[in-house]
Amino acid sequence: MDLTAPRDPSQPWLTQGEEKRRAVQNMFARIAPGYDRMNRLMTANSDRTWRRKAVQVLQVKPGQKALDLCCGTGDFLPLLVQAGAIAWGMDFCLPMLTLARSKSPASLGLADACCIPLRSGSVDVVTVGWGIRNVPDIDLAHREIARVLKPGGRFVSLDMAIPKNPAIRGISQVVSSTLLPLLGGDREAYRYLPESARRFKSREDLAQSMEQAGFKNVRYRDYAFGNVCMHWGVRA
After folding, report:
1. Which residues have a Cβ under 8 Å from the Cβ of 201 and sit 6 or more positions away?
2. DSSP assignment, residue 59?
3. Model pLDDT, residue 95
4. What distance in Å separates the CA atoms of residue 212 and residue 234, rounded to the nearest whole number?
5. What is each CA distance from 204 to 118, 207, 218, in whole angstroms?
6. CATH class of 12-164+192-235
7. DSSP secondary structure string for all residues of 87-136
8. Closest Cα partner for 145 from 169, 167, 125?
9. For residue 78, how many other CB atoms are within 10 A of its CB?
C-alpha cells in the first residue's frame, strides 16, 4: 500500500494529525456499545488480567491521584479506586465516557491526550489502555503525560504490538485482518485494529519516545505471544 497516497477518511489507519483525531473519535463513538464485549472476545478475557498487572507496576499508594487517560469505557478506573487512588478518567469520545460512568465513582472528563486539562505536576500515576496508538501525536502525548505527573510519578501503557516470532506474527495477521472485522460488525472499525498496530511504533521506539518525554527506568513486557505490550516508566 502506498503510504504517500491521498488519505481516505473512510480508512482511519491512513489519517494523520487532526484528521486522525476526528476519524478515530467518530469510529469509537460508533463502536462504543459493543466495545467491552469485543475486548473480552478478542483477548479471551485476558485484558482484565493485563490491566491488574499494569496497576501493580504503578505501586499505587492510598490517597494518590491517578489519571486514566484515553480511558474509553473505564476498565482501569475500578482497579485504581480499589488500590486506594483518587481517580479521574479522561477520553475524547463522549459515548465511551457515558459507558464508563456505570463502572466507577471516579470523576470523568472529555479531554484530548495531546492537551491534558490538568496542572503540571498534579497527579501521581497515569494509565493508558490501548490508547497511545490512537492519538494524533504520540510524542506530544508522552510529553503531556510527563508534564502532569509529579517527579517520581509513574506511567504505564498497554497497547497492541507486532509479535517478533514470524509464525505467530503470520497467524495473528490472518486472524486480525479476517476474523475480527466479521465478529465486530463494523468492518472499517475492526480493520483499524490490525492496520493501526502495523503502523504503530515498535517497542523500542515507544520506549525511546517515553525517555525523550522525560521518563526514566523505562521498561516493557510482552503478553499474548507478543500481540500486546506493556510499557512503564518513572517521571524524572
Report:
1. 138, 209
2. T
3. 96
4. 12
5. 29, 5, 10
6. alpha beta
7. EEEEES-HHHHHHHTTT-S-EEEE-BTTB--S-TT-EEEEEEES-GGGSS
8. 125
9. 16
Contact yes or no for 92/110 (Cβ under 8 A): yes
> Per the structure block, which three cell numbers stand in for 223?
503478553
Angle, CA 74 vertex, CA 69 and CA 79 arms, to 5°: 95
Side chain identity at residue 181, one-letter code: P
- pTM above threshold 0.85: yes
Contacts of 36 (CB under 8 A, 6+ apart): 73, 75, 99
CA–CA dist 102, 176 (Å, integer): 30
DSSP 75: S
Instruction: List, in order, residues 6 or more apart from 110 with CB less than 8 Å away.
Output: 90, 91, 92, 94, 97
Q: What are phi and psi of 182, to 5 degrees?
A: -70, -45
| Residue-wise pLDDT tens digits, 74-123 | 999 999 999 999 999 999 999 999 999 999 989 999 999 999 999 999 99
Task: Tell me how crowded residue 204 is: count the other CB atoms within 10 A of its CB.
Answer: 9
Class of residue 30 by CB neighbours under 10 A (exposed 0-12, middle 13-18, buried 19+)? middle
Domain map of the chain by residue range?
12-164+192-235
